Amino acid sequence: MYSFILAIHILLAVGITCLVLLQRGEGGLGGLGGSNSAANFLTSRQTSTLLSKLTKYFFIGFICTSLTLVIMAKNANKVQPVDLLPTQQTENPLKAPVENPVQE
To answer: DSSP alpha helices (H): ranges in 1-104?
Structure first.
């Protein structure tokens, strides 16, 4: 589940970046289309409104996935309580018995 939300989060981040660069402004890629762009059926006002709405929705999704990832990470790192009661010690079956090296 964490990986899925993280993938959505990354896609939203890339989408926001592209949408911000496409908006008309002082710089960016918005001015590259010119008046003969493929989306000239929309006026510049409608295109601006559409891009700003999409940016707003992508940003809301980005914030929601950010908060979800923080909550999931917080819950995953909870410390388990330490058991302070003594437990029964068992012998290690891999440990060889110690023999007396001195022979009489």
So the answer is: 2-22, 44-76
